[in-house]
Description:
The structure holds 2 protein chains of 2 kinds.
Chain A: H1 2-21, E1 24-31, H2 38-57, E2 65-72, H3 77-89, E3 92-96, H4 100-113, E4 117-118, E5 135-136, H5 142-155, E6 164-169, H6 173-176, H7 179-189, E7 192-198, H8 207-216, E8 220-223, H9 227-240, E9 245-248, H10 255-261, E10 269-272, H11 284-290, H12 298-320, H13 325-332, E11 359-366, E12 369-377
Chain B: H1 11-14, H2 21-40, H3 43-68, H4 76-92, H5 97-116, H6 124-144, H7 146-149, E1 155-156, E2 161-162, E3 165-166, H8 170-193, H9 195-205, H10 207-212, H11 217-243, E4 245-246, H12 253-266, H13 271-298, H14 300-306, H15 309-324, H16 329-342
Antiparallel strand pairs in B: 1-4, 2-3
Helix pairs in contact in B: 2-8, 3-8, 3-9, 3-11, 3-12, 3-13, 4-5, 4-6, 4-11, 5-11, 8-9, 8-11, 9-11, 12-13, 13-14
Amino acid sequence: MIKRILTVTVIMATLLTGSTAFATLKVGVLSDLTGPTSSVGVPYAQGVTDCIAYVNANGGVNGEEIKLIQVDYAYNVQQALSAYKRFKSQGIVALQGWGTGDTEALVRFVSRDRIPVFSASYSAHFMDPKKAPYNFTIAPDYSTQGRAGLKYIKDNWKESRAPKLAFVYPDKPYGLVPLKAMKEYAKELGFEITGDEVLGLKAMDATPQLLALKKQNPDFVWVGGTTPSTAVLMKDAKKLGFGGKFLVNIWGNDENLAKMAGPACEGNFGMQAAAVYGQDVSGMKVIEEQTKGQPQMTHYLRGFVSTLVMVEGMKKAAANGKVTGKSIKEALETMRDYDPMGLAPAISYFPDDHRPSMAVNVCTVKDGKLEFLETVSLPRDDKWLGK
Amino acid sequence: MQKCGLFFTTYNSEDQLFPSTFQKTCLGLFMAAMLAAPCVLDFYYISVMNLIMIAVIGAVSLNLLTGVCGQMSLGHGAFVGVGAYGCAVLASKGLPFLLCLLGGGAMAAIAGMIFGIPSLRLKGIYLAISTLAAQLILEYVFLHWTSFTGGANGMPVDSPEIFGFMFDSDEKMFYLIFAITTVCVLGVSNIVRSRSGRAFVAIRDFYQSAENVGVNLFQYKLQAFATSSFMAGLAGGLWAYYTMYITPEQFSIGLSISYLAMIIIGGMGSVLGSIFGAIFITLLPEVLNTATSLLATVAPEASAMAAPLKEGVFGLTLVLFLIFEPEGLVRKWKLIKAYWKLYPFAY
């Protein structure tokens, strides 16, 4: 008996001393690896994991390692809530979040617990520190992305008449959120808005919507769906001989689009926040090393950048003193034109404005491959904050 | 199964909720353990318990409607949403917490009664589809009645306050949720024993016989919808106050199905079954998550392969339960109790 007690005591002592010897900064990762958004959630989460491996291999944060605690919450808000509580009880200093539902459900918790969150949900109200003081993103909000896309189209519009614009979106918060802002800006730019069509995210057929669109005869159609519904729309458009071009929101335009829609997606436009794998930017070498040359989706790069920016905040916080959620937030708010190795446009946060930048990458699909076209920058207009 | 030596001389004493001293002692100990839990347990466990208790209210209320009264509902998640939004709107007008909670419950009860009207003509799967319509309509309202619900952007809710005391932590919310859950569970247990409860059971077992013995079908069915939705509204209100931010996505069809799964797994028509079901459905993803995390520390490669299996394991567990214990966890519990009562004799 005494022998057993002694053995247990020795093991406990070893574990305790071990845990103090290897002090780490803990970061929670809320991922959708098995739920409805897992097709993009998996590469994004891999980007987060690989970035931490890269940071740890390169000295961590002032010599301290970052330890990830990952939970697959399958896009379920209740599971996200308990995962967050688990993270908090394990002492995380920051969180890599994911979707709109969970980011919204956690917005007041993270603010109360002072834990900065980097999510992949770009609803405009997350950019306003008055409403979401601890929320950060590395891409501008959906409204800004939409405005940038419209600006790109308008800048390249050669005809003398006003370009006609229609909107296709799912009747979901993700599809509805940027509509008002985009319509206002489209009018400002001189677009003629022809109408709206609703297309569900699980749509198998877009013929009714396209027949209605054909009557409106728009030159451009903004698509607020995800890749599967966008592919259906584009394939049906080609089948029906629809002549307009599509301008696709960030989650509807990635490497899978060409696989799903084939030649129908060629030449359309889409907005992205991070570089495309293989793009000629300074950090691509690091990405290629991390991935051993295996091409990854743009969402992977976004996950990588999101973590890189968070780590930069942690490094700044460490330089100022102790790394805590509050100190990371304060450090991030002093970040000006931080270049995430060219993998995304330069990032700045302000205490009263958490929009990372006003720059959006416009992409297209060429020969079955996602290709970067241009970075469109808008002015950091206060009237757009949170809208 | 009656305890040996437990005899009754009046109907009232036989009809008690807790007839034996042993049961009362066990309940007392359970209550004491629950009250002590926030002082002992880590707040992660407390938060999981909070989620379980909110689920218990929702499941108990749905069991009253579906398990006891036999009225199938696929719109329960939306009624929870009505309560949550009702609470949030009243709270934003500056009303005190208890009024907001009751107001949210009342709004859900009204919604439940409106969508319960077809129950007079529709039964079984037809009623299920009708309540599914309620789910879709209410989801649409949550998303598009922007001036009331905040639309796609959702609504923030402040922590509840009673006489200046703020319930602004998991531990404090635990006591509040526990108190309301206790009231709801006791409430449903008592309704089942009352005249209304007997009428509900009569309707469930055979509506024509119920009508023949003088049960007003329309009145009692609506009563079941109203009571059930009221409590669903309370669950929604507590959810809103607990999460402090509500959006339409939180009250989707998935929530309705989840409540239905709770009462099927737990045991239809049983209050205790609803509690077991709520615990099971809330804890299962947590257990699976913990298992995959542990696997990740031991064998990362295997964990990566096991992660997509998680949803399958969840589904498989439900199917196995339905095959091997179709009457739910509550029957298992009764069998265990019977085993120990008779031990060491088999009969």
